[in-house]
Design a protein that fits this description.
Blueprint: H1 5-10, H2 31-37, H3 42-46, H4 49-63, E1 67-69, E2 85-88, E3 92-95, H5 102-106, H6 115-127, E4 133-139, H7 141-150, H8 158-166, H9 168-192, E5 196-201, H10 209-215, H11 217-224, E6 231-235, H12 240-249, E7 253-255, E8 270-275, H13 284-297, E9 303-307, H14 317-335
Parallel strand pairs: 1-4, 4-5, 5-6, 6-7, 7-8, 8-9
Antiparallel strand pairs: 2-3
Length: 336
Amino acid sequence: MTAPLLVRVARREPVERTPVWFMRQAGRSLPEYRAIRQRHSFFEVAGTPELCAQVTLQPVVRHDVDAAVLFADIMSPVLGMGIGVELVEGVGPVVAQPIASRADVDRLSTTEPQQEILDAIGIVRRELAPEKALIGFCGGPFTVAGYLVEGKPSRDFAKTKALMYREPDTWHALLDVLAEQFSRYVAAQVAAGADVIQLFDSWVGALSPRDYEEFVAPYSARILAAVDAPTIHFGTGATEELLQAIARTGGDVVGVDWRLPLTSPPDDRAVQGNLDPAVLLGPWERIEDAALDVLDAARDRSHIFNLGQGVLPATDPGVLTQLTQLVQERTVEARV
């Protein structure tokens, strides 16, 4: 059986057209998702296999994108480790007792992945067309550690960096236990039916390349190496030099946000990205021009079309459908 289109691109195989999906496509802008959230909390949806599968599939049904991405939160794999996390509207993950010492780290315990999430993956893979990929999802170790230390999202991650610099042994112990937990989590997702894993380090741009190499890269590499499936490695806000370090760390596909060109990753990797999500709030003529610029920049690469970050909540779902059709039709035409 032929592998899904996105999987073949991740392997840098010849393909008939460019695949397209959108980060945070499951939810955010969809009215059918908001209707579910009126009745259920985020973690209720993510923890109920049927609801999780329904939300995961909603963008595929509406937009005909080439991949479903598991509906989960960046903090999902830490919920069983002895950490209290609440998702606060307009704020993000809020940790009841932030990590502040080695004793706090030593109290953490690794657990088996939540069966509800694995059951949801099985439902989605059974309902998803064979040519469409199911992308599993895991937060990057720096981003999750940052939430655990800061207690909530931060602009400068000052507490996190202070822990890194003042107590490196504590920092490495924290990332070691997270890497173990996340490695189990992504391996279980693939065993349950995920075709691809994306490691999403959304705050890694707060680091210098040197600090990334010392304090983060070994743990991200360990997580990416834990699966026998293609992987996408994505970090936002990266400089050109930091993106090179991210690529060296691992990942069959390197995600690029909108602030860097798609030519930034090494030539021996597929690339993903990198339309500015805010462009989708403008008129269609500007969206089309920007999307075609992305496709032109990627014409000599194995490329997965995506945004350079997640879908913004105010995005018109009809625009996402129209954009999906544009990418699919234009890239077929380019190969004829």
